Amino acid sequence: MNIGVVKETARCESRVALTPAAVRRLVENSNRVFVQRGAGERSHFPDSSYVAAGAEIAFSPAEVIDRCELLVKVGNLTRDEMQQLHNHQAVMAWFHLIVADRDEITLLLDKRIAAIGYEVIEAVDGRLPVLQPMSEVAGPMAVAVAGHLLRSTSGGRGILLGGAPGVAPARVLILGAGTVGSTAARTALNSGATTYVLDLDVHKLRRLLTVAPGAITEVSDAATVEELVPPADVLIGAVLVHGGLTPHLVSRPLVERMQPGSVIVDLSIDQGGCVETSRPTTLADPVFRHSDVLHYCVPNMTADIARTASAVLSQASLPYILALTGLGLEQALQRSPELARGVFTLWGECANKALAERWSIPHREVSTMVGRQI
């Protein structure tokens, strides 16, 4: 199969979809890989490393898209890239279509694109095997960002996460006990912060305590959120509604009761955000204030550690890319339930129930399009 990798053009997006090591594996499996010139430069993967791995360097995104059957990206498609796609092409990316414009979904359907979202590839046991390793990176990053923003020079409260002898540590409140919440809790505890974690699922809280045994856990409800948000020095939003919009668990009035200089890091922002006052920001301008509370809401936060994040994404997505290239799209979707659950659109149909409900468009299961029951 011909596989294409383009240079990401979103603002401050420094990651690349495939590393040279992944390209080598694909070439060894009889695939051709076309990499746009400079695609890996900002992740410190030079063109020469891709050539050494067997890739062919292309000189424009249009050339890559024209020559490939499977386009592998990091971020969602740009308008230009969408226009350049040819009918029935397959694309893998962090689509986050639940917060996309309806025009984008319409274009994918009209061009009969097989759109596979990393964020909705799901194992039988409910794990999200591509999202999970990225979340393991994002959790510790969130605590590091919060610690920086708490500094006086950043406009924060001027406190240290771990406190000092005779001085109380910071209070960190984490909403969500999934992978992001668990890794953030572990990092916050290791920094010496007093760490609270809320979740609706007591089983997740129990698992969290195996990796962050010093955390204070509570089952989330409106009263508990109302009690714990105002005194928090740091609030980390780590809520995930698989494939759907994230509900606002923290209201605007509650944010306005937080202490001046406190910090919100809303990691749910790529699915709409779990704090009512959150809005997407960029790595170039990552922070805004509301009621003197600092908000950090960067959807592609891990682009700030581009080399590590690119390697993590490449490793996690490679098994699914190998399945697609080895079996072909239809056979891969038949044999891999995980991959089938990652399909947003296929052959002009919407295959994702949450997306169909969001835009009131017809929904059709992948299994009815590719043959036997998945």
Description:
- The protein is α/β, with parallel strands linked by helices and 374 residues long.
- The chain folds into two domains: 2-127 and 306-370, 3-Layer(aba) Sandwich (Rossmann fold), CATH 3.40.50.720; 131-299, Rossmann fold, CATH 3.40.50.
- The protein is 36% helix and 16% strand.
- The chain has helices spanning 20-28, 47-52, 61-67, 79-84, 102-110, 131-149, 179-190, 202-211, 222-228, 252-255, 306-327, 329-335, 337-341, 353-359, 367-370; strands spanning 2-5, 32-36, 56-58, 70-72, 90-93, 114-117, 171-175, 194-199, 216-219, 234-237, 263-266, 287-290, 293-296, 343-346, 349-350.
- The chain has an eight-stranded mixed β-sheet with strand order 3-2-1-4-5-6-14-15, sandwiched between helices. It has a seven-stranded mixed β-sheet with strand order 9-8-7-10-11-13-12, with helices on both faces.
- Strand 5, helix 5 and strand 6 form a beta-alpha-beta unit.
- The radius of gyration is 21 Å and the shape is globular.
- The mean pLDDT is 94.
